[in-house]
């Protein structure tokens, strides 16, 4: 036998041995994880009889998906025995409203942070974190239930909120048109969503895991803030202020002025963009330059440009010179400032698209028809 053949045979034997060892280790790991999952306590309904068989299946799926995702993001649960879930069930509700799934995901997330929630600011923070986490879980559950990408349905309450009707929507912001939580919880969740847009989801999930694993469990607001700041590496004074239910902010385009100028070419344009802030400020003055509001500009020749604004000044003006006139200016196009009270004043266009007028008229008629049907259907 040649040396090359002998070397090849030895290599194949080593490869087979390594593959066998990996297979044995993987099997042992899978068996260990299965044993841990079987031993881990599962949440349960306090009164299963209040739900139909289909609704109990939805709840069980929500428990399974929520537990799996929270274990991935936050680590295994430390609860010895989860508290029974008490769900608020309307007289009737469409499955697409995701009312049950939302309550399950929120309750399980809230339980992970229960030791941290002492009072005041800390309780608002925990409620906001739990509501933000449930929004990520419900997004997945919505896809499983409706077989289409999206997050939730536009949920309308009728007959004194005893009947909930959901209109499935396509891809929408997690915090958009969401009335299932209390106003204070939704406000805190919007603050958490803004923080995620600033630092990114992986960094935020890692910081939340650090917060849960901290021993002794922090309960004072200053301790929680210190832990999050150390984990994220950014100052969070603005975030703490934004958690207050009375906090409000509105970033807006104050004006866009376009003037032709002589620049040696056939014609150039000078654009002065004025931005303004009403109410409180998001982002820290000492923060990273990346933590800024973007200003996106689209020009008539297809070119684009971007500016950055810290958002801390009450007013500021930007001046841009270009060969083509701008046709659109968007402040915060990625919706980083989820707490903004009025995002509709952040867009400017040089002219309204002609096809927008009939679409607006059609939308107004559809809304009127819906209200008329809901109002007079009792007579039919």
Can you tell me about this structure?
It is a single chain. This protein is an alpha+beta fold and 380 residues long. It has 3 domains: 1-39; 43-242, Orthogonal Bundle (Neutral Protease, domain 2), CATH 1.10.390; 250-355, Immunoglobulin-like. Helices cover 44% and strands 18% of the residues. It contains 9 helices and 10 strands. The strands form 3 sheets. The protein has a 4-stranded antiparallel sheet, with no helix packed on it. The chain has a 3-stranded mixed sheet with strand order 1-3-2, with no helix packed on it. Strands 4-5-8 form a 3-stranded antiparallel sheet, with no helix packed on it. Strand 6 and strand 7 form a beta hairpin. Helix 2 packs parallel to helix 3 (99-112), helix 3 (99-112) crosses helix 4 (121-146) and helix 5 (183-199) crosses helix 6.
In short:
This protein is α+β, with helices and mostly antiparallel strands and 380 residues long. The protein has helices at residues 3-39, 53-74, 99-112, 121-146, 183-199, 201-213, 221-232, 237-242, 356-376; strands spanning 92-93, 153-158, 163-168, 249-261, 268-279, 293-299, 304-309, 315-322, 326-331, 347-349. The model is unreliable at 1-5 and 7-39 (pLDDT under 50).
């Amino acid at each position: 036998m040649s040396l090359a053949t002998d070397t090849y045979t030895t290599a194949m034997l080593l490869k087979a041995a390594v593959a066998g060892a990996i297979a044995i280790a993987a099997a042992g790991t899978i068996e260990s994880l299965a044993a841990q999952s079987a031993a881990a306590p599962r949440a349960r309904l306090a009164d299963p009889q209040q739900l139909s068989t289909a609704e109990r299946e939805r709840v069980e799926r929500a428990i399974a998906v929520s537990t799996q995702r929270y274990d991935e993001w936050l680590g295994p649960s430390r609860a010895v025995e989860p508290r029974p879930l008490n769900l608020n069930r309307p007289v009737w509700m469409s499955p697409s409203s995701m009312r049950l799934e939302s309550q399950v995901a929120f309750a399980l997330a809230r339980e992970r942070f229960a030791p941290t929630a002492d009072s005041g600011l800390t309780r608002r923070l925990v409620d906001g974190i739990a509501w933000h986490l449930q929004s990520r879980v419900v997004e997945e559950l919505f896809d499983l239930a409706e077989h289409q990408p999206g997050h939730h349905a536009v949920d309308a309450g009728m007959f004194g909120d005893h009947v909930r009707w959901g209109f499935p929507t396509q891809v929408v912001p997690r915090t958009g048109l969401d009335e299932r939580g209390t106003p204070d919880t939704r406000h805190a969740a919007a603050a958490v969503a803004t923080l995620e847009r600033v630092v990114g989801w992986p960094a935020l999930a890692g910081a939340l895991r650090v917060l849960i694993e901290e021993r002794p469990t922090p309960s004072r607001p200053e301790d929680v803030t210190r832990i999050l700041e150390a984990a994220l590496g950014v100052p969070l004074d603005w975030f703490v202020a934004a958690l207050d239910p009375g906090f409000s902010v509105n970033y807006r385009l104050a004006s866009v002025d376009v003037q032709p100028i002589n620049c040696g070419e056939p014609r150039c344009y000078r654009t002065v963009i004025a931005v303004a802030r009403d109410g409180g400020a998001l982002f820290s003055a000492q923060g990273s330059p990346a933590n800024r509001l973007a200003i996106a500009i689209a020009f008539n020749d297809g070119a684009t440009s971007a500016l950055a604004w810290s958002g801390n000044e009450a007013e500021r003006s930007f001046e841009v010179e270009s060969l083509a006139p701008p046709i659109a200016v968007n402040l915060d196009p990625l919706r980083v400032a989820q707490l903004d009270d009025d995002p509709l004043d952040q867009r400017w266009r040089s002219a309204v698209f002609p096809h927008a007028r009939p679409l607006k008229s059609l939308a107004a008629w559809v809304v009127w028809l819906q209200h008329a049907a809901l109002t007079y259907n009792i007579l039919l």
